[in-house]
Each structure stands twice: as C-alpha cells, then as structure tokens.
Amino acid sequence: MSEAPFVYPVSADRFDRKTFREKGYAYIDNFLPEEIFRKIHNKLTSQGTQSINPADIAKDPWMEQFDWHYSPDVVGNRKVENFAEKRTYFVRLLYLSTPLSKWTPMIAGPILERLADMRQIQRIKVNLYPRDSQFFEHEPHADNQWPDAKGGLFMVNTCNGFTKLHDGTKIQSVGNRMLFFKPHLMHNSTNTTDALCRVTINFNYF
User: Measuring CA to CA, which residue among 121, 140, 120 is closest to residue 188?
Assistant: First the structure.
C-alpha cells in the first residue's frame, strides 16, 4: 500500500517528513522572508520604531505599541501556593475560534499563509517570558487532547531558552525558526537568562 501524501507547511521542500512521522516533530529555519520576520520580531520585542501619535499609527499600523497581557503563572491550570515558585509571563491571545485582535492578520497572517494543510484555526497565542537571573523550565503541559490536531511554535527571537518535547528533545529558540509538533503530547517551555525576553507564537489548528 502506498503511503498517503503528507503535507504540513508550504515550504514542503524544507520540511523533514520522515523525522516528523518517526518522532512527532520537525522544524524549519528561516521560515519567513527576512523583511517580514524583522517586522514581527521588532514589534514583539519592542525593538522597532513606536509611537502613540494617532497620525503616525494611521500612516503605519506597525508603529503602534503591542498590547501585552500579564499572566500570574505560565501553566494556568495549576495552583501554586509558594510565591517563590510562581512563574509570571505576558501573553496575547490573537485567536480562539475567532480573531480576537487587530494584530491577528499582521502578526499571524504571514505564518498562516504558509500552513498549506490548515483547515481550521483553533488558537493562536503570543508568549513573552521575561529575562530572569535564574534559568528554569516550566511545568509540562499539553495544548489540547486531540490526536489529530496540529501545532506550530514560531520562535521570534534567539536566546538560550528552548521548548522541550514529549521525548525530552530540546528545540532551541532561534529567531525565525518554526517548530511543528503534536500539541496533544506533553511539552514545556523555559524562560531565558541571556536576552531581555523570550518570545514565541503558538499555533493550534486542524
């Protein structure tokens, strides 16, 4: 019996199908064209030009400041009584069954355009983990419970943080790297100690 065609990203020529079938993950470096990547990177790390002047923003929407939301713990479904064990971060939910932000087409659009097999978006979330003097891994979790769901994690900046997958593999945070994984399997994130922050964009879809 011949194997059914496997399509994940548009950049199929750079996608390691064999690795994904065997291990449940694969990644592509330099996923976006440099100019597009740089816009997203500068916006989410606040390294680009910004303004609060409505006239400036009307001329160039990328000038507006990105609105991060504070979260008191990285893994929200656990109760942490010890203050020293709390790990805070900043998030922005761009999509949850429907677009939730004007930033959705600007930040997520260029990536979504390259997911050729996507039929339905479930969630898109941007994460910012602030720098800390101590390096630590966050609690393992699964994004959902659907074995047929697909997951993508876009690395916005390069730092010493990583994502640890279900088999213990650590995928380092490298700017413009797109990691494809199975979101129903356990995985975890980390913070960073060698950059101002670690920023990622998480995609769950079918």
Answer: 140
With b for 16 or more beta-carbon neighbours within 10 A and e for fewer, the 148-168 pattern comes to ebbbbbbbbbbbebbbbbbee
Residue 120 token pair: 């339905």
Domain range enclosing 116 = 18-51+86-205
The candidate with the shortest Cα–Cα distance to 163, out of 179, 175, 176, 147, is 179
Residue 148's domain is classified under what CATH number? 2.60.120.620
Query: Tens digits of per-residue pLDDT, 143-196?
Result: 999 988 999 999 999 999 999 999 999 999 999 999 999 999 999 999 999 999
Residues 6+ apart with CB under 8 A from 109: none
Output the six-digit token pair for 152.
């993508």
Please tell me the total count of domains within the chain.
1
With respect to residue 65, please indicate whether it lies within any of the assigned structural domains: no
- 13 inside domain: no
Q: Is residue 166 part of a domain?
A: yes
Judged on CB neighbours under 10 Å (0-12, 13-18, 19+), 130 is middle
CA dist 123 → 77, 100, 104, 204, 205 (Å): 17, 10, 11, 5, 7
Q: Is position 7 within any domain?
A: no
- pLDDT tens track for 17-75: 888 888 999 999 999 999 999 999 999 999 988 999 999 999 999 999 999 999 887 87
φ, ψ (nearest 5 deg) of residue 39? -65, -45
